[in-house]
Amino acid sequence: MSDGWRPAAGANVGSGGVEFRVWAPNAESAEAEVVSPEDVEPRRVALERGAEGWFQGVDPHARAGSRYGFRLDGRAALPDPYSRFQPDGVHGLSEVIDPFAYRWGDDGWTGVVSDNLIIYELHVGTMTGAGTFEGVIGQLDALVDLGINLIELMPVAQCPGDRNWGYDGVGIFAPSHAYGRPDDLRWLVDEAHRRKIWVILDVVYNHLGPEGNYLHAYADAYFTDRHPTPWGDGFNWDGPASEPVRQFAIDNACSWVAEFHVDGFRLDATHALIDNSPVHIVQELTARSREAAAPRLIVVFAEDGRHEITRARSLERGGEGLDGIWADEFHHEMRVLLTNARENYYASYTGTTTAIGTAIATGLEQDFAGKGHPVGTPITAEDPASAFVFCIQNHDQVGNRPFGDRLHHEINLDRYLVASALLLFAPETPLLFMGQEFAASTPFLYFTDHPEELGRLVTEGRRNEFAGFRAFHDERLRETIPDPQAESTFVRSKLDLTDREVNAGVLQLYTSLIRLRRSDQVLRVNDRSQTSAHGVTAEVVLVHRWAGDEHRLLIANFGSAITLPVAGDAWRNVPGLETAELMFSTSDRRFGGTPGTPLVERHGTRWMVTVPGRSAAIWSLTT
């Protein structure tokens, strides 16, 4: 771990007490208001004003566990923008935390290798009944058994109230008090590392939430109306006085890797991070967080709605140095094929097996029939498959549906198993959303915990989002959409972990596929250059992967039973089928789908492949 990084501000424990430092150019004077556990009344420590609006001072009596806030020009104490913990929520005093008091057990941990990752996205509050970091620790062994090697936590920074997806964070250095204390998150990371699981955080730098954001009181320069976002003014990355703003975000990323040992990030909606500086904030934040983690290796992924691969290219190739991007096109094409979804952004997708094959072959579909023109920088052979994160469910694609219904709630189980096999066979990095591995019966709904008036606006806004959908033109029907503010909406979103037993066949399918992917000499390599993928019929996708003399063939059949002649472009590089051995089939009785037997047979001089209806099969072949 690098010894060079220290935060530019906040409350930092030292041998002489606690040093307080804050950037508040809006203020002429500043004090730290401090309350230690034994204090009857708070004490006030005057902070000395330095250059460019920085204030600092030391309280020799403060220590870890003391509560504090900053009083600007004599006004009421505010939470620290760099607060490491908000025990009473976004409006309460901050707590002094010594981030180096925790005794780590991961000294030999070297960090992430980006090849052959199996990502598991989870929400801490709904993963278990407890809804805490400790609750997630209790599920780690089940994730090991499944074959997961990287978990991605939806944002854990302090949000308003006790329940939230995490994208309304305002105390971005402080793990949510609803999930436990900061050391509980360290414990979770430590226990994950003990089981050889990496942990990355979903982090949000495109906006702060609508409640509890006190940054404007400290500095108007934190935000700018030059770069508006869908959520309001964006951060000031490139205007006057932007340097402390950039440092704020960079310090935040560095704090997670240095103080919590996390293994990287998923950067939310980076297309909304508008920065005209010579070095984009995404590039600088990534580089600085890698330095703070050194010698451990971390991974950084981006969600970017521009279909822009340059985020995930090296600096030498004109990129920004990240490791990958979320490639939702595979999901969208699959959703259209399986459910015939056509509204909203799905209107740009055809849902053909050809389009699905293109997404697998290229990593990131960029030529949309619905858009009429290509988007993003063209993909090249140098862009590895590991740089594209594929899914058939994630928090957005489930939770942003009116009733939070998962893919397997909408389609036949057999077809769901086929989609799962296709996801885990493709060379791109697969992501699972919590519960999909056992066909969770519970929805994942949108939930918040705002004060009454703001909450009312959130509920109205949420329901009005769907007014353009045919099914919700009628306001009375929109009233049936669950209220994000209702505690019951949150409770309904919690996984029912007994579904692991109820749907044991689905869980066994996922476990078998992941085990195959991680152990097989062909499938464990993320190599697009040795992959071909084609739509063979309107309901059949063929994917061929190879390494040296070894070949693997998957045929995913979403329709009725079919016998395919081995002929045409899709089969061009597939070796002779006389060596074909069946490795896996979703129609195996163990998995709970409709039984059937895939066959490879010679008919005279021609080979034929028979695939049962709504099933997928994987064969090994050798040249």
Automatic annotation (TrEMBL):
It catalyses: hydrolysis of (1->4)-alpha-D-glucosidic linkage in 4-alpha-D-[(1->4)-alpha-D-glucanosyl]n trehalose to yield trehalose and (1->4)-alpha-D-glucan. Keywords: Carbohydrate metabolism, Cytoplasm, Glycosidase, Hydrolase. It is found in: Cytoplasm. GO terms for molecular function: 4-alpha-D-(1->4)-alpha-D-glucanotrehalose trehalohydrolase activity. SMART domains: Aamy. One of its GO terms (biological process) is trehalose biosynthetic process. The active site is at D268 (nucleophile), E303 (proton donor). Pfam families: Alpha-amylase, CBM_48. Pathway: Glycan biosynthesis; trehalose biosynthesis. One of its GO terms (cellular component) is cytoplasm. Residues 125-470 form the Glycosyl hydrolase family 13 catalytic domain. Substrate binds at residues 266-271, 328-332, 395-400. This is Malto-oligosyltrehalose trehalohydrolase. Its EC number is 3.2.1.141. Belongs to the glycosyl hydrolase 13 family. InterPro entries: GH, GH13_cat_dom, Glyco_hydro_13_N, Ig-like_fold, Ig_E-set, Trehalose_TreZ, Trehalose_TreZ_E-set_sf. The record marks D396 as: Transition state stabilizer.
